[in-house]
């Protein structure tokens, strides 16, 4: 398989997570890894096209390589949304076929689309037609409800590949559309890594990333050794960002790591924080994504407590971040 620069970055990616992987979070993650592919939160095509909420696509140039995730199920609307994403300069446009939340189900998009691979193929084809050569990818589950993943997943991949998609991220568990909350749907349905590994073995021409329950770079590396093209990490990257991202460049990409000490990462965030606060933003909007950076280190609890209790207060700024770091060993 011929890899382009974004495929290469997808060796490791931080998963799209609503309310978590916003632009502040991505700036912070990007400081720790220059190479890892970062995903936006899901942006819905109706919000962009009908609601005119194009500001949802704003990001900073230093976030590259960065992929935008779209939610939707109307091919024409997704095509228009894709055009907007491409005009903003995103490196990839990803379609969400994995998110089980009620709100998303009511608009017929997200994981419920696993039941309609023909519609996903139509959506993907319309998006590719509008993408001006920017890669269109799909993030999916292995199935939903009482579907049999062994039957459904290969069929889904083949139908959507037929529309021209060649890169997928697969969350290796089913979603139950009734009866489980979105949070439970990320934990309760069992993971089936062997099935996803087999999809890759049987489809060497596709670029497949595996997602779900990967806690560390060691685990990510094991999936790559098993033949996967990429590992996508969500919650662990958010809650232990330094553990997952600070050595990602050397371990996953053979490149030098930007920082060895999480305190230096925090210091490097200060100018960004200063600019954000000066422009009228709240400190907590940025620091809420940084609470886990010292996870496992002495003083980590103090760091978290100071920021959780005080960063939302009026006037809080970079000096609070420096003060919160004082107790660290
Ligand atoms: C807070 C939160 C929000 C999420 N939002 C999205 C989303 O917008 N789009 C999506 O495809 N997946 C979303 N997910 C699912 C993640 O992308 C990922 O598939 C899931 O958490 C499993 O990976 P993990 O075990 O590494 O966390 C979300 C997960 C969390 C925890």
Automatic annotation (TrEMBL):
Keyword tRNA-binding: yes
GO molecular function: tRNA-dihydrouridine20 synthase activity
InterPro entries per the UniProt record, alphabetical: DUS-like_FMN-bd, DUS_fam, DusA, tRNA_hU_synthase_CS
Coiled coil: none
Class of this enzyme: oxidoreductase
Signal peptide: none
Catalytic activity: 5,6-dihydrouridine(20a) in tRNA + NAD(+) = uridine(20a) in tRNA + NADH + H(+); 5,6-dihydrouridine(20) in tRNA + NAD(+) = uridine(20) in tRNA + NADH + H(+); 5,6-dihydrouridine(20) in tRNA + NADP(+) = uridine(20) in tRNA + NADPH + H(+); 5,6-dihydrouridine(20a) in tRNA + NADP(+) = uridine(20a) in tRNA + NADPH + H(+)
Source organism, top-level taxon: Bacteria
PANTHER family tied to this protein: FMN-LINKED OXIDOREDUCTASES SUPERFAMILY PROTEIN
Family: Belongs to the dus family. Belongs to the Dus family. DusA subfamily.
Protein name (Swiss-Prot/TrEMBL): tRNA-dihydrouridine(20/20a) synthase
